[in-house]
Amino acid sequence: MSRFGELGGKLNRGEVAINFVKRRKLWYLITAVMLVISLGGLLGKGLYMGVEFQGGAVFTTPPTTISVEEARTEAQESSGSDARVQRLGNDSLRITVTGLDSETSNKTREALAGKLGLETEQLDAELVGPSWGEQMTQKALTGMVIFLVLVTVYLSIAFEWRMALAALLALLHDLLITVGVYALVGFEVTPGTVVGVLTILGYSLYDTVVVFDKVNENTSRLGKDTRFTFAELANRGLNATVVRSVNTSIVALLPVAALLFIGAGLLGGGMLKDIALSLFVGLAAGTYSSIMIATPLVVDLKKTDAGAKAHDRRVLTKRAKAAKGQDVDQDDSEETGGATALSDDNPDDSLTDDADEAPAAAGAGGRTGRSQGRGRAAGRRR
Amino acid sequence: MATPRRRRSSTGAQGRPLRPLLLALTLIAVLTGGMFLSGATTPRLGIDLAGGTSITLTAKDQPGKGDAVNEANMKTAASIIDRRVNGLGVSEAEVTTQGDRNIVVNIPRGTNEKQAREQVGTTAELGFRKVLTAGDATPPPGAGAGEQDTDGKKDDKPADDKPADDKADKSDGKNDAEASPSNEPSTQGARAGAVNAKANETPSPSPSPTDGADQGEKDEETPSDQPPAEGGIPADVIKRFEQLDCTTPAARAKANRMVAESDPGETVAACDREGVAKYVLGPIEVPGTDVDGANAGFDPQRAIWVVSMEFSNAGSKKFARVTDEIKSLAPPQNQFAITLDGEVVSAPRVSQRIAGSAEITGSFTQEEAQDLANILKFGALPISFEEANVLTISPTLGGEQLKAGLIAGAIGLALVVAYLLFYYRALGFVAILSLAAMGGFTYVIMSLLGPAIGFALSLPAICGAIVAIGITADSFIVYFERIRDEVRDGRSVRTAIERAWPRARHTILISDVVSFLAAVVLFFAAVGSVQGFAFVLGLTTLLDIVVVFLITKPLTSLMVQRPFFANGHRWSGLDAKRLGAQPPIRGRRRTPVTAEPKEA
């Protein structure tokens, strides 16, 4: 803990600053590549839709000695459709037959039960009509759109429209990545998956909101404080929440991992696993996007804002003047770039030096702040 | 740094951390007490955990009936299905509407699944039949009560508190006994009301554009089935009628099925819907499909509820013929029976020939009138359905799923607890206590919601609860990280805790709103089991706020009064040095701008 804690402290004060914002072009590039791959997978390979979306039946037997092959033959003969048989952890079988109407699936159930020497009703079954999945998908999409609209409105009020837009884009990114992973890996899409994906909406946004809250707090004094550009302030906010973000993600992933483990291991699939799997993928994407995409996007969007632009110009002018006067560092020109060495108000010089030398701080900015000695700590987080 | 300073700094919430804690304790105690009082000490388990069959029916759009799928029709359909399924004698089957076009039928294990499915699936049949003879619900002890209108023998009528009447004249007797509220002499009991031609003076809410009565009278030519002669009841039907027992739901269900499965042209013995009477009925004279519409309305003049119905052209002719035939017969043969699924839902008396539209009067309550109107209008189900999903789970599999869910929850919880302890040290205990409170709240509320709103714990619901562990823990993390940030800025632990709270609170509320929004949307947009998941997610999000405000924050404030925390012991999780804090040089910083989210 302690080391992480210290890192947290440094991040919080901006001694160690990972310049997420400065390198946003890189993140955008990575993101774009991942999105293209996802999209390619989705369009090229398509999703593997589970039986719930095609109509059919899933039968679950009690533990049995019948072989997978026998079960498949029986199921296919009695139904006339393709069957997939899977042996579960406790030696029971899951038999999935797609494209059945309920009449045939009843017959198949009887045949299978007969084969296993069971009463028909002892064979667990889920029979799905062909319109079930369609209905479900439609509902899910409707819900998703309503949610996105509501959230955009809410975030526009709670923060501002730029942040709402950025959050929305980050969210779409998470969804697309998740769906892409499903397409590429070929995971089966089930109602559980839909649940998981819909949950990601809330979860991913939750994470983004926490980061934004901090960024917003940091940048709320824009205009009064002429030492940092908007991008720098945003980056600082981001850095200050990195530890929390990571923590949150770990804590969120732990139970989901447990679900995944139990769902896949003990139950051999089913609802638990399906929800957990999509959540797992989505959460990972969500953590990435709230740090690497959402805030950088806000910074870019903010460039259209006259107030922020003017502010940045003031800051840079002042900085340039100071640099000339003191003939210290030079190359902090890039507008949003000079972020890293935000160590200014540290009265403790040695620490400041540390920060400057920290590899993570190797942004272009250099040591703009340090020697300027405008010692007031106005820029500090509260 | 204990008591004396405490008083000074006790502004706002910090000073009295005990109060919210006590509130939280009271809340838990009250809820737990309520749980034990209500007797529901465990959450009700859903079909997928307890075993059973769950059938989801989806309304089908029918050409020409574009707006048939609406809320009212769905409700009617659900109540009809409910009656059918529970007519099997199992009263635990649960029928609910879900979304705008689904009906979910949950049948617990132990019921005859196959029969139940058949019941749910069949289309009910509505028909009008002549009453040939009527009798009490119970089979007479002796076999001597064969003929139709004889026999002043009095039977005790179970399930009916009205005085025993002469068996054959039951409906009339009822009429006399009831002192009907209407001023119309012919009005009878609800089930055996009177039918009148819809007279002109009737202020019907739905006046049909064409005057059905007149039109019906004009063409009367088509005599279809020959009416069975009065005495022409087949001997076996008489025998069945004598033996017929309509007093128990199970016996009724059996009789109804027999009637429903019989040929429409057959003479049958049928039970009354509420088990007070039984009838021998002629063949179906007018099928339910000939009813064009029906309405329940209040007649202010007579101050009673009436049901008016309209027949189609063909139906009108048939109905006119039937009523003409029976209008002057002796009771009970002047009655006709409206049967639904082989069950007599109403048997009104006729005193005149009726064509086109008719009005049924009787001592209906509003509900009865509307119910009857619905039955007449829709024949059976107002909408046709298809089985969208049928899930059968054995108790064994259900038990396994429950076990797996609980294990997953336990593992997830253990991992989170371990992580919190590792990362936040002693501060982690606050989080664990909060999580425990959260767990307690969730369990108790879920148990209470079982009987209250029919909440059933399903696998997705368990999943939602497990996912919620993360959301809840996150609130602690937000707060704790804030505290640590303050400590890192060189503040004392005590100050840090109070300063961190407003900002953390803001963050927690904003993000919980988002989370709750997601849950609500998910709930309303959900199909099937997704709802359970969304419900639990929403519930836990609300609880999260309760727990953070009433437990986590006060508990933290309380703990900081101990030197262990206040001095930032290295195991406290608030050790300034370990957190990499800066010693506050140059004394206090200037007061920071208050945190107001502001458009920059």
UniProtKB/TrEMBL annotation, chain A:
It holds the Pfam family SecD_SecF_C. The gene is secF. Keywords: Cell membrane, Membrane, Protein transport, Translocation, Transmembrane, Transmembrane helix, Transport. GO terms for cellular component: plasma membrane. The keyword Nucleus does not apply. InterPro entries: SecD/SecF_arch_bac (IPR022813), SecD/SecF_bac (IPR022645), SecD_SecF_C (IPR048634), SecD_SecF_C_bact (IPR055344), SecF_bac (IPR005665). This is Protein-export membrane protein SecF. One of its GO terms (biological process) is protein targeting. It is a multi-pass membrane protein. PANTHER family: PROTEIN TRANSLOCASE SUBUNIT SECF, PROTEIN-EXPORT MEMBRANE PROTEIN SEC. The keyword Zinc-finger does not apply. NCBIfam families: 2A0604s01, transloc_SecF. The chain crosses the membrane at residues 26-44, 140-159, 166-187, 193-212, 250-269, 275-299. Its main location: membrane. Residues 310-382 are annotated as: Disordered. Forms a complex with SecD. Part of the essential Sec protein translocation apparatus which comprises SecA, SecYEG and auxiliary proteins SecDF. Other proteins may also be involved. It comes from Streptomyces alkaliterrae. It is found in: Cell membrane. It comes from the Bacteria. One of its GO terms (molecular function) is protein-transporting ATPase activity. Belongs to the SecD/SecF family. SecF subfamily. Residues 345-357 have a biased composition (Acidic residues). Part of the Sec protein translocase complex. Interacts with the SecYEG preprotein conducting channel. SecDF uses the proton motive force (PMF) to complete protein translocation after the ATP-dependent function of SecA. Residues 117-303 form the Protein export membrane protein SecD/SecF C-terminal domain.
UniProtKB/TrEMBL annotation, chain B:
Residues 180-189 have a biased composition (Polar residues). Residues 384-560 form the Protein export membrane protein SecD/SecF C-terminal domain. The chain crosses the membrane at residues 404-422, 429-449, 455-480, 508-527, 533-552. Keywords: Cell membrane, Membrane, Protein transport, Translocation, Transmembrane, Transmembrane helix, Transport. Residues 114-233 are annotated as: Disordered. Forms a complex with SecF. Part of the essential Sec protein translocation apparatus which comprises SecA, SecYEG and auxiliary proteins SecDF. Other proteins may also be involved. Residues 74-131 form the Protein translocase subunit SecDF P1 domain. Part of the Sec protein translocase complex. Interacts with the SecYEG preprotein conducting channel. SecDF uses the proton motive force (PMF) to complete protein translocation after the ATP-dependent function of SecA. The gene is secD. Pfam families: Sec_GG (PF07549), SecD_1st (PF21760), SecD_SecF_C (PF02355), SecDF_P1_head (PF22599). GO terms for molecular function: protein-transporting ATPase activity. The keyword Cell wall biogenesis/degradation does not apply. Residues 150-177 have a biased composition (Basic and acidic residues). GO terms for cellular component: plasma membrane. InterPro entries: SecD (IPR005791), SecD/SecF_arch_bac (IPR022813), SecD/SecF_CS (IPR022646), SecD_1st (IPR048631), SecD_SecF_C (IPR048634), SecD_SecF_C_bact (IPR055344), SecDF_P1_head (IPR054384). Residues 278-383 form the SecDF P1 head subdomain domain. HAMAP family: SecD_B. This is Protein translocase subunit SecD. It is found in: Cell membrane. It is a multi-pass membrane protein. It comes from Streptomyces alkaliterrae. One of its GO terms (biological process) is protein targeting. The keyword Transmembrane applies. Belongs to the SecD/SecF family. SecD subfamily.
